[in-house]
From TrEMBL, chain A:
CDD domains, per database record: PBP2_Bug27
PANTHER family noted in UniProt: BLR1237 PROTEIN (PTHR42928:SF5), TRICARBOXYLATE-BINDING PROTEIN (PTHR42928)
Protein name: Tripartite tricarboxylate transporter substrate binding protein
Record has Transferase as a keyword: no
Family to which the UniProt record says this protein belongs: Belongs to the UPF0065 (bug) family.
Source organism, top-level taxon: Bacteria
Classification via InterPro entries: BUG, Bug_dom1
UniProt keyword annotations, A-Z: Signal
Signal peptide: 1-23
């Protein structure tokens, strides 16, 4: 290219407009650590690795996923709470660690929006109400009738005390006014095993893996807990359509940074996250765990976290769920 | 026939140059990382998981499976050489395997565990290919009452067969169970015996406990004796197992494979019991039970085969139901999800190349492990000739790295140190660590399944009697206890866990 006065002028203008961008572009200078407060191998871990891998290519720094498991996610969450608020330590937070734990774990002394800076929502995971294939109930109304007929006799499985699958079921029992027994398991795998084996009557599980069992004829899905039907199982009604007014239980997932993280850094990570969530390849991978992407602003994430904390707190108080 | 065409498809997939290479890299890297003292399959797979992200799903899972077998084999190597089991399965290997190493037969111990694992792996692969689907439905009938009864039987074996120090063995088992109850209560979420520490909220990691009371305590005990090792006293005998040793091992290998294959396919992690059960069985059947604990090759061959067969058949619930029976398989589920595969019963029909390719790769992986490991035996044995003043600091440093890498938690290293001192004192007072570890491993499962069975039956104890399988298992356990109480039989009773 021949450099003329004109192109020089254009180049100068381009550099001038690029200047403010350069100031922000100072972040990231080094690797970003994304803390997953659960052991490797679960849905949380898979989500973090999918997002981290995509963001690495997007943001221009390597996003390293670090598993800091312990105490239902409290250990890893607190590690990020106490980390330097410089944007180099991020947290994968969800309804379990942010919305439920502060109500049930005495050790979880943190507040999701006061002790953290919300960066952006990643996704929502609605669940499916799945019953044992031999249970006579054909729909949600039938299940409620059966539970009322035999109070305390139906058992439901959860993947642990205070997990989303436990809370979704408690919310259902509370709203439907039924009495059912809670059988907690260590993770969703063993819970599903006993449902398939006929020892458990129903459970709330993530949609794709539940759908896999339903499609194989080993279980039946009665409803999904999101506000809308799931494209994975379009024939299955939402809980509201099935007659439970106002019932919605989708687990929210998002990226958080320690409180006091600078706004420009948060904006940069948020932009990168939203760009990644718009990528169909990422959406497809997230869908494996039933994730419905929810790109948005940090402010929307903050509002969602506050609402989530309030919602589960109210249930735990009203239904008098005793965990300790 | 269907099975044959499916297997042909599997081998076609697994034998592609790329997948062969991935299986080889997986086995090799798994072996090398797994050999770090205390680093078992879980830690190894976790560390190496990210390197599989860029590969297609079949290749990634084949490689992960290779890492899994490799790490398992590497874990046995460190159990035999330095008495540090990286996971529950190699506790039993450490008993007689390390005793053999002390007698200068480390090569034979390593060799027989490679050969035994290979045979077990081959047979278990055939079991999976032919019977996975029908057995899955059968295994689903196994409920909490049955698991509870099975685990009780596991403990009773240890009690009945521990001899001379029955009381001490019982005390150790109970201590192990007690240690297993530390952490959040599954049913109530209540923190138990954590002293308010978040580090204890999830209980004690197996590797932390095992490395402390086994490996580190062993180092302490060796330090007091000065350098007197048979290994370096010239005559080492043949490097690999002799013809006689092979002959003595073949039946234990086959029995261990059978036990491991059956226990491994239970979705509730029955595989943990396999090596213990095999050890007990071999000792019962042996003409020289007094040699057990002092370096009997049958006691390495049987449990190692049981362990490997169980490891292999524990893929059954994962492949046919999409349900992981243990922590390693849970990581495999995570890997599948990252690859965009929903684990579930549909994998078999929707992705036959994945399903059958993995099964075929199991056989290939086992063959590769044999090829990788037999030539390395000589190298590992020479490692034992390194003087203590160099070997011990190296073991301690590598172990600490291994422990830290499990959870990135420095407190784990401190705890290992504490268990090392406790383990040393226990050995000095004549208590053996193996029953403690068995109690610890089974403690979780016993408690969870007992309480789950009680919850499901709404507190009716009769649930154990109404269920035929649990009734039989509990009656066998009770019978064994009664037999052991009869004084005439007591004289014949053998020792399982007495080390020296």
């Amino acid at each position: 290219m021949k450099i003329t006065r004109r192109t020089l002028g254009l180049m100068a203008a381009a550099m001038m407009t690029a200047l403010p961008a350069i100031a922000v572009a100072e972040y990231p200078q080094r690797n970003i650590t994304l803390v997953v407060p659960f052991p490797p191998g679960g849905g949380n871990d898979a989500m973090a690795r999918i997002i981290g891998d995509a963001m690495t290519r997007q943001i221009g720094a390597t996003v390293v996923v670090e598993n800091k498991a312990g105490a239902g996610g409290v250990v890893g969450t607190q590690a990020v709470q106490n980390a330097k608020p410089d944007g180099y330590t991020l947290l994968l937070g969800h309804s379990g660690t942010m919305g439920i734990n502060p109500h049930v774990y005495p050790a979880a002394t943190y507040h999701p929006t006061r002790d953290f800076t919300p960066v952006g929502l990643i996704s929502e995971i609605p669940l499916a109400l799945v019953v044992n294939k031999d249970l006579p109930a054909q729909d949600v109304t039938g299940l409620i009738a059966l539970a009322k007929e035999k109070p305390g006799e139906l058992s439901y499985a959860s993947s642990g005390v205070g997990t989303g699958s436990h809370m979704a079921a408690e919310l259902f029992a509370h709203d439907a006014g039924i009495e059912v027994a809670h059988i907690p398991y260590r993770g969703s795998g063993p819970a599903m095993t006993d449902l398939l084996g006929g020892r458990i009557d129903f459970l709330f599980g993530v949609i794709p893996s539940s759908h896999a069992q339903v499609a194989a004829g080993k279980a039946r899905a009665l409803a999904v807990t999101g506000a809308e039907r799931s494209p994975t199982m379009p024939d299955v009604p939402t809980m509201q359509e099935a007659g439970i007014d106002g019932y919605e239980a989708a687990l929210i997932y998002g990226l958080l940074a320690p409180a006091g993280t600078p706004d420009d850094v948060v904006a940069k990570v948020n932009a990168s996250l939203n760009a990644v969530l718009a990528d169909p390849a990422v959406q497809e991978k997230l869908a494996v765990d039933g994730s419905v992407p929810r790109p948005g602003t940090p402010a929307e994430h903050r509002a969602a976290l506050d609402a989530d904390l309030e919602k589960w707190g109210a249930l735990i108080r009203d239904a008098k769920i005793e965990i300790h | 026939m269907d099975l044959m065409s499916n297997l042909a498809l599997g081998f076609q997939t697994a034998m592609s140059l790329q997948n062969l290479g991935l299986a080889f890299i997986g086995c090799l890297v798994g072996t090398l990382i797994g050999i770090l003292p205390g680093v078992g399959p879980i830690a190894t797979i976790t560390m190496l998981l990210p390197i599989t992200f860029g590969i297609d799903p079949v290749g990634a899972l084949i490689m992960l499976a290779g890492i899994y077998y490799g790490a398992q084999y590497g874990g046995s190597t460190s159990a035999i050489l330095v008495n540090i089991p990286g996971e529950a399965g190699s506790v039993v290997t450490a008993l007689d395997g390390h005793a053999m190493a002390k007698k200068g037969r480390a090569g034979a111990a390593l060799g027989i565990s490679a050969i035994g694992s290979f045979i077990a792996g081959c047979i278990a692969t055939v079991v999976i290919a032919a019977l996975a689907v029908p057995l899955t439905d059968l295994a689903l009938r196994f409920g909490p009452t049955d698991y509870f009864a099975l685990m009780v039987m596991g403990l009773v074996f240890a009690v009945v067969l521990a001899h001379g120090s029955v009381l001490k063995a019982v005390a150790m088992i109970l201590l192990g169970i007690l240690l297993s109850t530390i952490g959040s209560d599954l049913e109530t979420g209540q923190a138990r015996m954590t002293f308010g520490s978040l580090h204890l909220a999830d209980g004690i990691d197996f590797a932390v406990l095992a490395m402390g009371i086994f490996g580190f305590a062993e180092v302490l005990r060796n330090l007091e004796g000065g350098e007197q090792r048979d290994v370096i006293k010239g005559t080492m005998g043949p490097l690999l197992p002799t013809r006689d040793e092979m002959k003595r091992s073949i039946a234990p290998i086959l029995r261990g494979t059978g036990l491991g294959s059956v226990l491994g396919m239970l979705p509730g992690n029955g595989a943990v019991l396999a090596p213990f059960a095999s050890y007990t069985l071999e000792k019962k059947l042996s003409k020289r039970p007094q040699d057990f604990g002092k370096g009997a090759i049958e006691a390495v061959a049987g449990p190692e085969s049981a362990n490997n067969a169980g490891a292999q058949t524990s893929f059954i619930p994962l492949l046919t139901l999409g349900i992981p029976p243990n922590a390693v398989m849970a990581i495999m589920v995570g890997a599948m999800m990252i690859q965009g595969i929903v684990p579930g019963p549909q994998v078999m029909t929707e992705s036959p190349t994945l399903f059958w390719g993995m099964i075929a790769s199991m056989w290939i992986g086992n063959l590769m492990l044999l090829v990788i490991n037999l030539p390395m035996v000589g190298m590992w044995v020479r490692l034992l000739k390194v003087p203590y003043r160099l070997l011990f600091p190296a073991i301690l440093i590598f172990s600490c790295i291994g422990i830290y890498s499990i959870d990135n938690n420095p407190m784990d290293v401190v705890f290992t140190g504490g268990f090392a001192i406790a383990g040393y004192l226990l050995i000095k007072m004549g208590f053996e660590p193996a029953p403690l570890l068995l109690g610890f491993v089974l403690g979780h499962l016993i408690e969870e399944n007992l309480r789950r069975a009680m919850l499901l039956s709404r507190g009716e104890l009769s649930t154990f009697a109404e269920n035929p399988l649990s009734l039989i298992l509990l009656m066998v356990s009770a019978g064994l206890l009664v037999l052991s109480a009869l004084p005439t039989l007591r004289a014949k009773r053998d020792e399982v866990f007495v080390e020296d």
